[in-house]
Amino acid sequence: MKVKPDDLEDAGGHLKSLADAYDDLVLDVATSTRNRADAFTGNGSSKALMETFDEAYEIFYTFIYQTGVNIRAMGLTLEDFAENHRMTDREVERSFEEHEEDIDEVRKRDRKVGPSLPPAPERKDDPGPYNRGGVN
Amino acid sequence: MAFPAGTPTLEQVNGLWERAKNQIEVRYILEAFNMWIADQAKQGRAVDRWVEGIAIARIPANYGEANAARLKEQAKQAATKTIDAFEARYSPYFDKGQEAALGELYSKYTGYRGTLDQLHESRDIKWAKHYTDDWREKAAEPFRKEFMEPLEGAITRHRDIAKYLAGAVSLEAWGQVAIRKSFAELPLAACGGGVTKERAEELKKTKGALETTSDASGIVGLGLFAFPAAGLIVGGIGVVASALADSIEPVVISLELPDTTSMSYTAWVKLVHDAITSLTDGLDKGRDGAAKDLRSEMIGAIKDLENWETLPRHFVPGGELLD
């Protein structure tokens, strides 16, 4: 086994820290469009640029939100690996497979901050961040 | 982001129309004279000479000083009313709130790009990669592939999407600057005795103050006046606009007017109103075109999202297609 448990644990910690950075970004992004109607529809009748902006926003928010969730899940998973540091190769393989399934559970369970679901277009003009399910 | 230095303000455009007021009055007076002369002709009274007047420098013979004074007053009121009507239509395009909101959004999305740049270079991502670089176990490979490889690429892609967001904002700003600039050019184009597109381009480069000219008949009209030099619209909008400039046509609004020298007051007022409509339509068309171009730039990100929705949930979105 060439992977050292301490390294796994450290890598997990760094990934969780990275996930924190993504969560901070998500929270800021969630409130970033409050003035978008003023910015795009102050005059004229075409909403084309605002609609394109909304589409990009939808992608941006979803991506950074999901990335934060997945990086955190990965970090937590690595820390779990570290706990089982004396494994045979076969056990390692089995463990990876099992943990892959666990990741979806972790990502649901251990979300630290941030909205719990990606944005809904109809909520764009809400005064608060997108946060349909509350912060865990 | 603020609009580029030299972007015309509402006050400047109002000032330009104010400077043109005298010429509008003259146009009104000339039309009234023409109607009066035509009326005289119908009654069999020919008016074949002009005389000097007090209220109006030059009046038809037999028009009368009292009539001239009354007409001068009517012309003043008509010019004021006309300019007010123009202003009512163009003033919404000089919304300071919109400028501030665009600036705020632009700042946020360029800021997010900066944040993602920092993450890309962060100690956390470097150490996470370093610690997992030595994984040689075959069983770990799928795990690495799914979770580690996308990280860097995902951040790059996320940064690109932030660029599209800032790009939409900058293109809107581009349109706003363009329409303000166009409205600042309108008084010149409408009062300058017919300005071709080429001539307008030439005049844009001309610096100078309002010049009034007096022709031999004593009628005062506008010769040439300089409008605020807006400079390049892109100036000051920043790095995102530059990044998009190669592939996306900015919002361009053009204005062409016929020679208005001999146009009646009524026809001239209609021409200016039509020109305002043309400019505002131009903004909308420009927005539509810019949005279409921007969306085609974003097609990769749109496909990433669609693709990601079909994958197991532990994939990092936007990353799996990247190096």
Write structural notes for this entry.
- Chain A is an all-alpha fold and 136 residues long.
- Chain A has four helices and no strands.
- In chain A, α1 (5-30) packs antiparallel against α3 (48-83) and α3 (48-83) crosses α4.
- Chain A is elongated.
- Chain B has one domain.
- Chain B is rod-shaped and about 105 Å long.
- In chain B, β1 (50-52) and β2 form a beta hairpin.
- Mean pLDDT of chain B is 75; it is low at 206-237 and 317-323.
- Chain B has 323 residues and is mainly α.
- In chain B, the strands form two sheets. Chain B has a two-stranded antiparallel sheet with strand order 1-2.
- Helices cover 63% and strands 4% of the residues of chain B.
- The longest helix of chain B is centred in the middle third of the chain and has 43 residues, at 149-191.
- Chain A: Residues 89-136 are annotated as: Disordered.
Secondary structure: elements and pairs:
The complex is a heterodimer of chains A (136) and B (323).
Chain A: H1 5-30, H2 36-40, H3 48-83, H4 89-109
Helix pairs in contact in A: 1-3, 3-4
Chain B: H1 10-42, E1 50-52, E2 58-60, H2 65-90, H3 96-120, H4 123-133, H5 141-147, H6 149-191, H7 197-204, E3 212-214, E4 220-222, H8 239-245, H9 265-297, H10 299-308
Antiparallel strand pairs in B: 1-2, 3-4
Helix pairs in contact in B: 1-2, 1-6, 2-9, 3-6, 6-8, 6-9
Number of domains of chain A: 1
Most extensive interface: A-B, 59 and 74 residues
Read across the widest sheet of chain B, the strand sequence of neighbours is: 1-2
Helix count of chain A? 4
Shape of chain A: elongated
Query: Structural class per helix/strand content of chain A?
Result: mainly alpha
Element-level helix/strand string of chain A: HHHH
Structural class of chain B: mainly alpha
Mean pLDDT of chain A: 74
Strand content of chain A: under 5%
Uncertain segments of chain B of ≥5 residues (pLDDT<50)?
206-237, 317-323
Helical run tally of chain B: 10
Oligomer: heterodimer
DSSP helix fraction of chain A: 55-70%
Q: Using the CA coordinates, give the radius of gyration of chain B.
A: 30 Å
Helices and strands of chain B, in order, run as HEEHHHHHHEEHHH
Distance between the termini of chain B: 33 Å
Largest sheet of chain A: none
